[in-house]
Design goal:
Helices cover 52% and strands 8% of the residues. The chain has 20 helices and seven strands. Helix 8 runs parallel beside helix 10.
Length: 468
């Protein structure tokens, strides 16, 4: 991303170093917003590693504030505070940061409460500013993590229908629909290429082998009782060295809220909202469990989610919101304050252990992006986003200069940018064939002496080849 910005390739599409140096169309498919934000801090003078850390810290802060907005709108400020703390200290969030390093999914958690909050406030007040906020929040989610978008947008649609039915304001549906369209338009620079250029990359490898969803369902014990914490990976069966624990306070207080409203349904104003959120919680848990395999098999697009436990984003979202409602049932300021202290202290005490790194590395940007470490970065996930014109990923690093296939050629200079390569080539023979260290992808053009020439990419790696 840093090379794109410095090179003026905005929005960033093509990254030059991935694919062992042959370049990948990574940000056509990989949601870019968190990386633009982290790049902003790098441009301010922070190292790349520190900019990434700042990004994670800010996503903690902003997601907590976003959940406070939603919780306080539903349950009041005290309930909003409880919901925010539960949201921040959900064990799955620790897995996202310290085990998986899932930047996009972690940042996406900011927008889930904002979408629900803006819809709720618009239906309640009918003020256009909340509709605009909904549009920007939806766009933010779409360009932050497309997988979370796939999970959460249908839930947002149900939230809209539920609120319009509850508030008897069906006339607002068209306005909300237009707000949603605006959100998609704001994210169009990313969403449209993602949809229409999917056929130009080997995305089928993202759902094969290890990434097949059948290997990654979780058990009820993993969700509700197993507190094991590991820094490993998700594996077939229920012995993963990775935690999928919902958190005892999260599921317990959700059930407590349901018990309370079942006893006092008519006297609790937000009972239907709690029931709706509880159904989201159950849906998320069900979709992560192996019993939902019949749904996964019937809906092929779900395979691109790869890991059924990604539905834990719904679980931690819903349980966090519901948990904030419990304190709103309590009367009396002293009892409410004591309960607030007990709940917040309890959830932090039980879950703070998870929020720690496996180990610390004393490493600089220079060390990270050189030597063996850099070689690993060039080849990591090498099949992801490989252009369809290459039969297989490269086995060796891309050369610094073009390869001479035939002819008498002398290369006097050659330079590479983020999405361009140029140089001076002297051809002494009648004709020469030259192959660039660059994957072909639709949109690339080759110019010789200012004139566009034909490109041939019919070779094993699908590299740009042309005749001079």
């Amino acid at each position: 991303m840093d090379k794109c910005i410095n090179d003026g390739q905005i929005p960033c599409r093509w990254v030059p170093d991935m694919g062992y140096g042959y370049g990948y169309p990574q940000f056509i498919y990989y949601s870019p917003l968190p990386y633009y934000i982290m790049e902003g801090f790098h441009l301010l003078g922070f190292s790349i590693l520190d900019s990434v850390k700042i990004g994670f810290i800010l996503s903690f802060v902003f997601s907590g504030l976003a959940m406070f907005l939603l919780g306080s709108s539903l349950w009041g400020d005290w309930g909003g505070l409880v919901s925010a703390v539960f949201y921040i200290y959900a064990p799955y969030r620790a897995s996202d940061v310290y085990t998986r390093g899932a930047v996009g999914e972690f940042w996406a958690l900011i927008f889930l409460p904002l979408i629900f909050w803006s819809i709720f406030e618009f239906v309640k007040s009918e003020k256009i500013k909340y509709l605009v906020f909904f549009s920007f929040s939806l766009a933010g989610l779409l360009i932050t993590h497309n997988i979370t978008s796939l999970i959460f947008i249908p839930i947002s649609g149900l939230w809209i229908i539920f609120l319009l039915w509850q508030q008897k304001k069906k006339n607002l549906l068209v306005k909300i629909f237009l707000g949603g369209i605006l959100g998609f338009c704001l994210a169009g620079f990313f969403i449209l290429p993602l949809i229409f250029e999917k056929r130009f990359a080997h995305t089928e490898t993202m759902i094969m082998g290890y990434f097949n969803y059948l290997a990654h369902f979780v058990s009820l014990r993993q969700l509700f009782t197993i507190t094991h914490w590991g820094f490993g990976s998700s594996e077939l069966g229920s012995y993963d060295d990775l935690s999928f624990y919902i958190g005892i306070f999260h599921w317990l207080f959700s059930f407590i809220a349901m018990v309370i409203i079942s006893l006092k349904y008519k006297s609790i104003k937000m009972s239907k909202v709690i029931i709706f959120l509880f159904l989201i919680f159950l849906t998320g848990a069900f979709m992560a469990h192996q019993r939902s395999v019949i749904v996964w098999d019937r809906l092929p697009f779900l395979s691109y989610l790869q890991f059924p436990w990604r539905f834990l984003t719904l679980v931690i979202f819903a349980t966090s919101v519901i948990s904030g409602s419990v304190i709103s049932f309590v009367k009396g300021i002293k009892i409410k304050f004591f309960l607030l202290f007990l709940i917040i202290g309890g959830v932090i005490f039980l879950n703070v252990f998870y929020f720690r790194p496996k180990e610390w590395y004393d490493i600089s940007d220079t060390q990270k992006f050189s030597g063996e470490s850099w070689e690993k970065q060039l080849t990591i996930s090498i099949f992801d986003y490989l252009p369809i014109f290459a039969k297989m990923p490269p086995a060796t690093k891309a050369p610094d200069q073009p390869t001479i296939i035939k002819g008498d050629v002398r290369i006097t200079s050659y330079n590479k940018g983020s999405d361009w390569q140029k140089g001076e080539i002297n051809v002494a023979s009648q004709e020469a064939e030259i192959r660039l260290p660059l994957f072909y992808f639709p949109g690339f053009k080759v110019y010789v002496d200012g004139r566009e020439v034909l490109i041939d990419y019919n070779n094993y790696l699908g590299l740009i080849t042309f005749t001079v």
